[in-house]
């Protein structure tokens, strides 16, 4: 039986303090009403269901926990997540999964600009589309977009891999389309399965770094 | 032949350094990247003097009467403020820019005298945490190596918006310093030129920063002081916005502040001197009614107890040192002069921290060079230097009749130049004139 915390009656501080100081268990959070920093800094194997919309940085720096937002999420959902799973049933605002090092972030709806910016190992699956500058300076991990991608996808990309099913408005500096080999189809199938999606991996295209900007050269100045 | 002795005249506009810079640019087609801070002559604390006691003020006995030095940072919101024995701290410098030995030495030296040291871009190393009694953990745009365990292990968190050497600029760690360990900590391929973003990836502007600070407090259960560090530019406004965003401590870094790798044109032409920034910061805090409640740390060219005393007199709660700390460890030591010359530099001039071939073993990741720096010995030198700075500041404070370093005040200062009087808002020596405030 899940422990219920009603944010109409308790402050976010009380929620987070409880999540930080108890052993793994289940939680329901009612009336989030766009509150910021909901369920951030968890380091236990909690299951947290947030029944409504959240503001900035929900599940920020998550470790081990499974957090589900039954609504929309504001800026920076699951930012710098280390492990665990964060799922947004609605849409997510800017910088979803920013700098996250691990774990799985699933956004059933659309994500706004800079989804996966500076990602460092996280896997992100977006059921809808992503905005401009997504995966900017992405270092590691995988970004899967079942819809379309906005401008400058993967700009200044390092080693993160990107899969897009729909159209890409434009690719950012040093981001190129790459061959979809068997190992990529296999890893994409695993990611879609983990995100509980039924798209066919064969419908996706793969994008990655051309690795031409890894060393600062005079010849590259027009690329920036 | 010495050209000047034969009547040859060097151009003030096109001096030798300028001529060399043009020649170098013409040959390479790329701008100069270097370490250190601004090297040009700037109005600085040397342009201020302290007014010792005489008939109208009562001094304290230099060798017998107490002059306390302790300072508490982060009293505004944090459950556990930092309690330092002396108001001089070690500024943020990264493992990657510096060797692990140098980072350990900084921790050892700071801890020996009861003050704090600071991480940098690239995360926290076990050596640094283990040897630092008080460790401030930087939260930077790149978030290299950022994780909640290190945040919880820190004694304070410093949200870095910029630094004095390059306000508005990101960072670059050249490939020769991206070893396997550095690359692993930053989740990057070995040997590539690593860029650090100039903006944070998940917030823009002061309203967002307030929410970011809230998140950091929630993650760490409101235990840690949160600093906000800005490079000195529009300091009056930046400090006000940092306070509104919820900072416990504001760090203002003037343009003399150091860097490990930045374009020379950026270092020398962006930002304002520490002396110009400090009074703006104090005025902002005073107008908000939080001077001393939100503590102010000032850095950028702090070299001595005199600089420290003058900064405190102008209203800072503490100072931070970076370049001076590296010099104390052994940077630019004459014993390496021959090796500096092989690199095209000389002891006293060496600023190629970006290059990774530092003979002193400080700004390098080369295993052989790094091993030259004994962390215990270098830490002892730093501790000595910090003690000397503190004793110098105490000497000056006692002369002004102060029983605590933080009792120094602007009234204890006069300026030697019109520029410094205008910037510091203290009178020109021998007059009551503060430029901009009438006769």
From TrEMBL, chain A:
SUPFAM superfamilies: Alpha subunit of glutamate synthase, C-terminal domain (SSF69336). Coiled coil: none annotated. GO terms for molecular function: oxidoreductase activity. InterPro entries: Glu_synth_asu_C_sf, Glu_synth_lsu_3. This is Protein glxC.
UniProtKB/TrEMBL annotation, chain B:
Residues 73-330, 359-402 form the Glutamate synthase domain. Residues 107-129 are annotated as: Disordered. GO terms for biological process: glutamate biosynthetic process. SUPFAM superfamilies: FMN-linked oxidoreductases. It holds the Pfam family Glu_synthase. Belongs to the glutamate synthase family. This is FMN-binding glutamate synthase family protein. It comes from Streptomyces aurantiogriseus.
